[in-house]
Amino acid sequence: FDNGEVWTNREYNKARQELILKEMAKPDEARDNKGYITEAERDAAIAYPLVFTKDAQAGTDDPDNPEDAQAEPKSKATPRYSWYVEAVISDAVDALMEEQHINEKAANHLVFSGGLSIFVPYDPEVQAAVDTVFNDRSNLDQVSRKTGQRLMSAITVVDNSSGYVVAMGSTEEKTVNRGWNTPVDTKRQPGSSIKPLSVYSPAIEMGLITPASVVDDSPQLLNGRPWPYNVFPVYDGLTTVWDGLTESLNTVAVRVLEKVTPQASFDFLEQKYGITTLVDSYVDSGGQTHSDIDRSPLAMGGLTRGVTTFEMAAAFATFPRNGAFNPATTVLEIKDASGKTIVDHRTTPELIISERTAYYINSNLSNAVTSPMGTAGKARISGQTVAGKTGTTNDVFNYWFCGYTSYYTAAVWTGYRYNEKINSNYVNPSVTMWQKVMEILHEGKENMAFEVPGTLSSYNICKDCGKLSLPECTQDVRGNRVQSFRLFAEDAPKEHCQCHVPVKVCVDSPVNNAKGEPIGRYHLAGEFCPEESVQTVYMVDFQRE
Fold it and tell me: Which pTM value belongs to this model?
């Protein structure tokens, strides 16, 4: 109440009883100005003590005691809260602390004994699909031979039509109430799944790149050694951003991040995408300083504390929602016992990136699913447009997949409770779990392609400089170096390729491999090469450090 008074659940029930009895005793014209009960019956009923079911139960639980309200129920018949209900309770407590300016103890008391009405976006059909997959241990039946740990996984699902979290789950058996909530509380390094959020969407939004931009897929020197490594230890040189994201090349992500700057990337994750687990600066017990404002954490997902499926699902849902973001929550509104709204989370979604940026990310991450070179081919759903980003961390401790259709977005993490290498035979189990859930959710649904916010045109681009191609680009010594891109007019390059230059080679002097076999390349034509053996080819004039 405004005067600071707090009622117990029993006091709310007593007040409600008296209100109803008084209304029943009021004269009613439809009943010849007689009430449903007499005033004497009203007074007798008010005087009669209310009997609460808790009074008849064994045990010492006192519902008016906030500490007992938080305690583990003592009755063996009490069911365990689901992962989702756990999240609702936690979100409600946090919201009440913030909105009502009360401490955690008082907020818990209100949730359990305050007669509140809590409105949630929960979808039982989506939850049923999650439970079908995540409660079936045969879908992830792997036990470590070394430690005996059982591989575990967690998922959070967002309905893209609203942007709200509608379901969550875990392969773990839930044994206690008000304990650890795996989908919400487990923080693990995201690996490459962070790249669309921390690198590519900020860079596109800031006008630094387009999918046709060219970046050098080559290592840099870090402490005298080549860095970073790609998943497969090869480097392809000049590469488009499109291919860099499709193939999840670490080198390309690092070089694009350097354009964005680590600080801007950090701010984007925290202020735009609502990632709350980032570390600005932290000194551990050994005196070592940690910070996520750096290339490795932001470009390759080596975050100090990691992320949760809860916040990753909400962040990724921004892309199919054309740039609109809703913070991760399971609580829409809370009303007190009198029906007054005391918490309102039904906020208008914030447009945190442009529709243009969202479209480019959607297209590129769709290519990661459909392209033979993509990392997410196992996420395909028959008849549906699917997009998503995989993530794997160092030593293969964690597998991630954050994927979406126009209907739903889901983030899945898989790993051991205590870090240990996952033996998955190069198959990302998070992709498999995601696909199983989504396949159920999309049964009978029509394909809904991602929206295109404007008019696109096709442009032939030189893959070595990112400019409009010339015939010389097709005569590169390596083959055709032209790639077609669908771009908005403002993103199309205005200049033509200047990086391909003519080079004269001698076809009588082939370049051989270690076995002495020709590889289709030739040495430069010298003064002794016969004129008829001189051939002009085109190569890229590019100085690499």
Answer: 0.84
